[in-house]
Amino acid sequence: MENRNSRSDGINKFDIKIKSKPKDGLVLQLHHTIRGSNGGTRRIRFITGTFNDAQEKLACADNNGNIFILDFSQLKFWKILSKASCTALQFFPNHLDTLVVANKKYEIIFMDIENGNISLKLTGHSAPVKHISFSNNKMKNLLTASPVEAILWELTNYTKYFTLNTYTSANIQQIMFTPAGDYLVSCFQNDTIQIWRHETMKSVKQIIPSELKHMKSIAFTMNGRAMAMAGLSPLLILFGMDTWKVLKSIDLTKYGINGVQQIYFVPQVFDGGANKILGILSSDCILQFLNVEILKIVYTIQCQSGGIRSFIVSPTGKYFLCILQMGEVNIYNTSCVMDLSQSNKELEDKPCTSVPHKCHKITKSPTPTKEEVEDRMRICMDTARLRRILMQYGEYPDKFRATIWRSLLRTPRNKLAYSALVDKGIHPAYKDIEKQFTIHSSITLKSLKRLLSCLSHWCPLFAVIKFLPGFVFPFVKVLQKDPLLLFECVATVLLNQCQLWFEYAPLPPISILAMVENIVAEHDQPLLDHYCELEITSQTYALKILETAFSEILTCSEWLILWDHILSNEPSFILFAVASYSITQRNAIKKQKTHDQVENFFHNQNPIDKKTFIKKAYNLLNETPEEIHPRNFFNKFCALDKGLCYQQFTGYPKATICLKMTRKDKKKCIKSDRLHEPPDTDTGSEFDSEEVVNYTEIDRGHTEHKHKARQDRKKSKGECGPSNIKDDLINSIIHPVNEEANIKKSHESRSQKKENILVRAESEVKNNKLEKEVERIFFNCNNSETSRS
């Protein structure tokens, strides 16, 4: 890049140099790096681009709304500014120096690339526009499309000619005119292709390829006689537009391609529009060129600096560009690339001479399988390395997130143990879960049912936890393509991040809520005072967040980033994230004047700066005093055992859960009990009154914040209820006191303890009898369920 620059109408133009004879076809690489106020550098990512072959120009837009124009004929480049980040670009055909820009404000802007002036603005979309194209026939229409709608504009008066609206499960994946402009073709997310005649906008054909699932992209040859279809399944279909029949069905696994993100036909000179070279961007972010006539890969582009996120071919095929995942743009000369493919073919076919070193046979290393890549990543990337990546970039890459989570959680991949749980079928507790939740996708519903059933077969606790479906649902959405990883990931989270959640089940986890309250009290006492004034307890600002795994208050991208950090840290980090959300949103929360307003606040996705939110969670983790730090009560991370079965989940009161399960089928259980021995009517009533009252007392004590109320609760509770150790743990969390006060109180209570020895002895006998009775009921109930199944 030269230092010389020229000025035209207030726009600075700079010189560029391109390679005249590139060895690998790469003529130019673009990257946008700026210097920050602290002296460091920051790279801004390019997100989209478009070619104008008639004028030898290229427009590229970055993530900050800057648009760069490259003129290959004059070897100049310059920058024009947009008011908002761009989502799509397209040069206006037959209009010199006019660029059509779609921005994140849902606007369509006609901009002069020489001075940046805006000549026209169209509005009408309700979502960011992802596609802009012009028809090549006499109608001269403009097509703009977002995932939820497509609009045809008449270019004579710039009014809406036709609007296509979609519904949630059938959003627009891709939409375009055929090369001649006679038809409008749209690919939807439900794997359906719809074709309309352009003149009348009446549907003429619907294509539903049964073998092709998760369709991602379609492409047309220049003569419009053939259409290619591809998606995340390893299959490529060539469809004849004149015969409405399938021409070829190509298995892409032969070429090491397990899925496709994007396809483009590459026009070539003298091919008559019947393009033979198809560019295929695989799910592995590698660009390969397939000759669909001889069914052979002729060239492969795999960038060392990073994977390819998308690629764009110019209308005549003279150039194509690759937008890398790191944000750079590589621009290639197509003819040079095709010449390289031809020379490689000649070298492969040429026989070896008598001098071995003169024969350079080009051999391609086999593409590693997904399992091999995952195994290499698990070996090379330990938790410390992954955390360094997370601290540097703030999140893990989407492509490798599942593999990284698997490495962080050290999932054992116990296929036999998981198969044994799946073979038990759908658990009765979740047989009709679709009646409780509205889930449009049948695949997601099936995955959710399978996961909940496996968890319930693994531990009976999870058959009676009401919030469990809402807690696991976001994990299902992210990991449903790998059911084994999904189950082991959720099970590991329940073992570690969800410690102490179920110690009072089905009542709230008092210890956990008290820990969150102590963190808020330590770092933001005025906020806690505001909660107390409105009678807001931690069940509102902590429990609701935990039970939905943050999915109710965060967007999808924010949720993924947060769980990247939760899974990369100690198990108690999740509690600091809960407290961080309240403290970060302090100003918004204090504006809520009623209990209902605060409660609604924690059921909505409120705007939040995710970087500040995450940073605050780390600050709380590091600055919380050791005496109230949750890590004192959490066990260290424990992975699932590798072998033929998973370890038991025991962190819950078995008697309470058993009783709740028996109530679902009370009549049958009582009948089976009477066959063995006469029923003890007093036992059941005593269990209900004693156990529930004790837990209610603890819960009420947690929600009150006055010292007098805590003392009254302590007197009324006496020595009944949970064990002394658990009482000490809860009391130390809810109202920690110094040692002298504890000693003084213990001396004062000695006389009372002596008076209660006889009562406690009778209570212990009764409790032992109760435990045996409930265990027998649970055993009979299990037998009855087994016989029914």
Automatic annotation (TrEMBL):
<keyword id="KW-0677">Repeat</keyword>
<dbReference type="InterPro" id="IPR015943">
    <property type="entry name" value="WD40/YVTN_repeat-like_dom_sf"/>
</dbReference>
<feature type="region of interest" description="Disordered">
    <location>
        <begin position="673"/>
        <end position="692"/>
    </location>
</feature>
<keyword id="KW-0970">Cilium biogenesis/degradation</keyword>
<dbReference type="GO" id="GO:0034451">
    <property type="term" value="C:centriolar satellite"/>
</dbReference>
<dbReference type="InterPro" id="IPR035969">
    <property type="entry name" value="Rab-GAP_TBC_sf"/>
</dbReference>
<dbReference type="Pfam" id="PF00400">
    <property type="entry name" value="WD40"/>
</dbReference>
<feature type="compositionally biased region" description="Basic residues">
    <location>
        <begin position="703"/>
        <end position="716"/>
    </location>
</feature>
<dbReference type="GO" id="GO:0036064">
    <property type="term" value="C:ciliary basal body"/>
</dbReference>
<comment type="function">
    <text>Molecular adapter which is involved in cilium biogenesis. Part of a functional complex including OFD1 a centriolar protein involved in cilium assembly. Could regulate the cAMP-dependent phosphorylation of OFD1, and its subsequent ubiquitination by PJA2 which ultimately leads to its proteasomal degradation.</text>
</comment>
<dbReference type="InterPro" id="IPR000195">
    <property type="entry name" value="Rab-GAP-TBC_dom"/>
</dbReference>
<feature type="domain" description="Rab-GAP TBC">
    <location>
        <begin position="395"/>
        <end position="570"/>
    </location>
</feature>
<dbReference type="InterPro" id="IPR051570">
    <property type="entry name" value="TBC1_cilium_biogenesis"/>
</dbReference>
<dbReference type="Pfam" id="PF00566">
    <property type="entry name" value="RabGAP-TBC"/>
</dbReference>
<keyword id="KW-0853">WD repeat</keyword>
<protein>
    <recommendedName>
        <fullName>TBC1 domain family member 31</fullName>
    </recommendedName>
</protein>
<keyword id="KW-0175">Coiled coil</keyword>
<dbReference type="InterPro" id="IPR036322">
    <property type="entry name" value="WD40_repeat_dom_sf"/>
</dbReference>
<dbReference type="GO" id="GO:0060271">
    <property type="term" value="P:cilium assembly"/>
</dbReference>
<keyword id="KW-0963">Cytoplasm</keyword>
<keyword id="KW-0966">Cell projection</keyword>
<dbReference type="InterPro" id="IPR001680">
    <property type="entry name" value="WD40_rpt"/>
</dbReference>
<feature type="region of interest" description="Disordered">
    <location>
        <begin position="697"/>
        <end position="727"/>
    </location>
</feature>
<keyword id="KW-0206">Cytoskeleton</keyword>
